């Protein structure tokens, strides 16, 4: 209840600004920044999500009903790594690779076969279909948010507009949302707080969608001022859904608390925050329509029928142009070949003509495994000069996060230390490039909930707790950077 009251307070303040908002809408029509097609309405009613026969549910249920997710432990079996390599060669879906275990999604029959070779295992998900269906329902009423028609909204009087904003916000975090709803929400936020932020496009994907970024700057009069930038990027990997509502939540709280929270106001006045909740736009759309566990983007590839580049292997540091295009880890033939990576490269490395700002913070949000990771991801043989500083900040971040809901996040270098015989390389990682090439001072990869109970199928009821603890951590991050001598 008190949250609703608070929201009301936030809404009344910017009401006057809605006139400005309407002007901005009119401008949207002419602006190159937006592709109108994104905002076309599909329905005007709030629909109850049909978990039965319609659309993706039936499709996905059939697809994954024989699938399991199993954690294979590395220790106690000399042949383990060999078997895991074998799993890779059979193109099994590897969910998570750590130094001590590997989580794999595989069909029941294949699972039996592998368990006979690696007895040291734990079944994480015994029926993927069932857990997938459960992850989509918050236990409360399950609503599929309709996309909003902003042509109509631009003529909507203030009061119903604010009501719509409140209603949309309230529903938004109850469940995972599809791309249209996310875009609608971001645009709604940008409209409500048009004095504090703007929604822009960083580029276009292979399938022609806009990569949207919310640029939050506070109410500093001179926008050309050389403000330092903190960039937050989510969903480089399409199936890591939790990163989207988590980043939307942070964007929402930053703008909504600007006037009421001194700490937030200082952070927005000092830095420009650029938040990209859905970097892999095409891939995310694909996880709703075809394959819940799709990871890469959807770019067509030369000389291959397989599609997609893994965005977190496509950056210019330690890039590996080889590899099988059909592989989930395929990072492209050239660095920045993926439109999404190229768009972020331009943003981070300051090469856009209008950008005269330097990026000091960069958080690349992934899931799962609850960890705060710093460069280098490429190999544990490389130690960053800032290792101690990273460690200090990471410890602070995990501590603050822990205070919110008691969750434990680990913190370490992003590389995976395998045994002496087998080395693990992570070519073309975003944080490595950000740190080494773009000289971003504080780059981290954050891997959100959970530690494997649900993995990518984190239940919707965990959206808000995950977002809340992340937001606490984010404020600490901003404060640390603003106080750090660098
Ligand atoms: C897995 O769950 C789905 C959905 O509840 C069900 O239709 C299917 O039969 C289950 N599969 C097995 C092997 O139990
Ligand atoms: C992105 O992909 C499209 C379609 O392949 C292409 O036409 C466009 O030029 C690309 N944009 C950038 C910024 O690379
Ligand atoms: Zn990831």
Automatic annotation (TrEMBL):
<keyword id="KW-0378">Hydrolase</keyword>
<dbReference type="InterPro" id="IPR000834">
    <property type="entry name" value="Peptidase_M14"/>
</dbReference>
<keyword id="KW-0645">Protease</keyword>
<dbReference type="GO" id="GO:0008270">
    <property type="term" value="F:zinc ion binding"/>
</dbReference>
<comment type="similarity">
    <text>Belongs to the peptidase M14 family.</text>
</comment>
<keyword id="KW-0121">Carboxypeptidase</keyword>
<keyword id="KW-1015">Disulfide bond</keyword>
<dbReference type="GO" id="GO:0005576">
    <property type="term" value="C:extracellular region"/>
</dbReference>
<dbReference type="GO" id="GO:0006508">
    <property type="term" value="P:proteolysis"/>
</dbReference>
<keyword id="KW-0862">Zinc</keyword>
<keyword id="KW-0964">Secreted</keyword>
<dbReference type="GO" id="GO:0004181">
    <property type="term" value="F:metallocarboxypeptidase activity"/>
</dbReference>
<keyword id="KW-0479">Metal-binding</keyword>
<keyword id="KW-1133">Transmembrane helix</keyword>
<feature type="transmembrane region" description="Helical">
    <location>
        <begin position="7"/>
        <end position="28"/>
    </location>
</feature>
<keyword id="KW-0732">Signal</keyword>
<protein>
    <recommendedName>
        <fullName>Inactive metallocarboxypeptidase ECM14</fullName>
    </recommendedName>
</protein>
<feature type="domain" description="Peptidase M14">
    <location>
        <begin position="175"/>
        <end position="481"/>
    </location>
</feature>
<keyword id="KW-0472">Membrane</keyword>
<comment type="function">
    <text>Inactive carboxypeptidase that may play a role in cell wall organization and biogenesis.</text>
</comment>
<keyword id="KW-0482">Metalloprotease</keyword>
<dbReference type="Pfam" id="PF00246">
    <property type="entry name" value="Peptidase_M14"/>
</dbReference>
<keyword id="KW-0812">Transmembrane</keyword>
């Amino acid at each position: 209840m008190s949250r609703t009251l608070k929201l009301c307070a936030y809404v009344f303040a910017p009401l006057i600004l809605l006139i400005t908002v309407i002007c901005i809408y009119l401008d949207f029509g002419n602006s190159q920044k937006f592709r109108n097609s994104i905002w076309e309405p599909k329905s005007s009613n709030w629909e109850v999500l049909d978990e039965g026969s319609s659309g993706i549910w039936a499709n996905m249920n059939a697809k994954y009903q024989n699938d399991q997710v199993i954690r294979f432990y590395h220790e106690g079996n000399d042949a383990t790594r060999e078997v895991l390599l074998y799993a890779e060669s059979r193109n099994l879906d590897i969910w998570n690779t750590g130094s001590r275990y590997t989580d794999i999604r595989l069909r029941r029959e294949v699972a039996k076969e592998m368990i006979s070779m690696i007895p040291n295992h734990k079944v994480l998900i015994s029926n993927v279909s069932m857990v997938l269906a459960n992850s989509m329902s918050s236990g409360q009423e399950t609503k599929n948010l309709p996309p909003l028609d902003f042509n109509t909204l631009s003529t909507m009087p203030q009061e119903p507009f604010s009501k719509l904003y409140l209603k949309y916000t309230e529903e938004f975090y109850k469940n995972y949302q599809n791309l249209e709803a996310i875009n609608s929400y971001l645009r709604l936020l940008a409209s409500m707080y048009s004095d504090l932020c703007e929604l822009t496009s960083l580029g276009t994907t292979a399938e022609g969608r806009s990569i949207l970024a919310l640029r939050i700057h506070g109410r500093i009069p001179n926008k050309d001022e050389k403000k330092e930038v903190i960039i937050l990027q989510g969903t480089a990997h399409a199936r890591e859904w939790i990163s989207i509502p988590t980043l939307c939540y942070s964007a929402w709280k930053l703008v909504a608390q600007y006037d009421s929270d001194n700490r937030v106001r200082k952070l927005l006045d000092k830095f420009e925050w650029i938040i990209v909740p859905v970097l892999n736009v095409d891939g995310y759309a694909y996880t709703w329509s075809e394959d819940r566990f799709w990871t890469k983007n959807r770019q067509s590839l030369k000389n291959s029928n397989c599609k997609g580049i893994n965005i977190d292997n496509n950056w210019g540091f330690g890039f590996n142009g080889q590899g099988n295009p059909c592989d989930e880890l395929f990072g492209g033939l050239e660095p920045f070949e993926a439109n999404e990576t190229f768009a972020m490269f331009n943003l981070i490395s300051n090469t856009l003509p209008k950008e005269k700002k330097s990026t000091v913070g960069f958080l690349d949000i992934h899931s799962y495994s609850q960890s705060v990771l710093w460069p280098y991801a490429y190999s544990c043989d490389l130690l960053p000069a800032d290792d101690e500083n990273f460690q200090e900040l990471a410890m602070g971040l995990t501590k603050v996060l822990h205070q919110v809901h008691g969750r434990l996040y680990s913190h370490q270098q992003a590389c995976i230390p395998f045994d002496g015989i087998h080395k693990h390389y992570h070519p073309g990682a975003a944080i490595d490039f950000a740190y080494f090439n773009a000289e971003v001072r504080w780059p981290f990869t954050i891997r959100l909930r959970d530690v494997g109970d649900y993995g990518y199928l984190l239940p919707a009821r965990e959206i808000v707790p995950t977002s809340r603890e992340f937001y606490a951590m984010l404020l600490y991050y901003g404060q640390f950077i603003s106080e750090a001598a660098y």
